[in-house]
Amino acid sequence: MTGAGAGARDDGIVWSEEVARLEQQAAEALAGAKSSAALAEAQTTVLGKRSALTLAHRDLAKLDPPARRAAGKAIHDAQTRLETLAFERAEALAAVERAAMLERDRLDLTEVTRDEVRSTITRGRLHLVNQTRRELEDVFIGMGFTVAEGPEAETDWYNFEALNIPPAHPARSMWDTFYLELGQPETVVLRTHTSPVQIHLMEDEPLPIHAVIPGRCYRRETADARHLPVFHQMEGLVVDRGITFADLAGTIETFTTAYFGPDIHSRLRPGYFPFTEPSAEVEVTCTICRGAGCRTCSWTGWVELAGCGMVDPAVFQAVGVDPEEWTGFAFGFGIDRCAQMRHVIADMRVLTENDVRFSRMF
Ligand code: DAH
């Protein structure tokens, strides 16, 4: 033990003075540490294996038993107090350091004026497709329709068979289909249109039905200016007593002027869909030339928007609805296409690019 002369080792008083001196030194070292790192270092020096107090234990062997016990206890007590001190110092330093870090990282908003804040914070908004979907829903809700939804993964039966499109029917080529690896091969598909929800509604809901069904659809196609492999449709289904083709034509015309504006009209031309008979293609006034004729509408003044028709009795039969009692019409059109036409968007692919410069325009 340093500082206590060889002759003084038997002297308990000298021992306790020496321990007190070492403790004092150690406490000063701990208190003087200015950072957590410095404290950790000081702790090793004054409390570690090679510290003066620890080494002092070795010298105890030279004392007689009562003095050894007293000195051992003195060292032990000193070390315990120092450990408490170190712990408290560590906490205090950590608090100071945390506060300093918070201060460093603080975002000082008081230095920015309110107008500056307003110009840097922008409000999010719905994607144009979702805005369009909601507007279209509103138009149909105003006409007395309800809004329904259905699953995006369908069995072949819902997407095709129940809609009067049996396996290997040539009409299947109208839809390039994504098949899911589920169950038997080619039995589960990503729906190619919202028409299968017609089947779900007639199965699940009491008649009459007046519903529109918006939703996402999938086709195995390469994206181009007018097509997306993942797109949105809105289906319409009305099943009631005494529904005629005139109800269908009137509904389409009302929707067209309500959504596109009073100068945009609709016309129906004969078409073919397996689930409607008769079927029609809906054309509306070209929104680019407003009917005057331009490149987009091939100088006709009209562009194709939707398919529609009277629900085929074979579809009613598939879901057990009596075609003698009930008649109905259905239609389906692209929501993305509506947005494209109304806002004159040259290339539909911008809808998938998430470019905020585009999103901010709507
Ligand atoms: N499902 C058709 C398609 O995706 C569109 C369609 C045509 C829906 C006629 C209908 C309909 O409900 O009656 O091409």
Which geometry do the CA atoms define?
A: elongated
Helical/strand content category: alpha+beta
How many whole angstroms does the radius of gyration measure? 41 Å
Name of the CATH homologous superfamily of the largest domain: Bira Bifunctional Protein, Domain 2
Please list the strands of the largest sheet in the order they lie side by side. Answer: 1-4-5-9-8-7-6
pLDDT under 50 segments (min length 5)?
1-9
CATH architecture label name of the largest domain:
2-Layer Sandwich
Main beta-sheet annotation: 7 strands, mixed
CATH class of the largest domain: Alpha Beta
Give the helix tally.
12
Run of helices and strands: HHHHHHEEHEHEEHEEEHEHH
Provide an overview of this structure.
The protein is α+β, with helices and mostly antiparallel strands. The protein folds into two domains: 106 residues; 232 residues, 2-Layer Sandwich (BirA Bifunctional Protein, domain 2). The chain is 42% helix and 18% strand. It contains twelve helices and nine strands. The strands form two sheets. It has a seven-stranded mixed sheet with strand order 1-4-5-9-8-7-6, sandwiched between helices. Strands 2-3 form a two-stranded antiparallel sheet. α2 packs antiparallel against α4. The protein is elongated and about 115 Å long. The termini are far apart. The relative contact order is 0.09. The N terminus is likely disordered. The structure holds 3,4-dihydroxyphenylalanine.
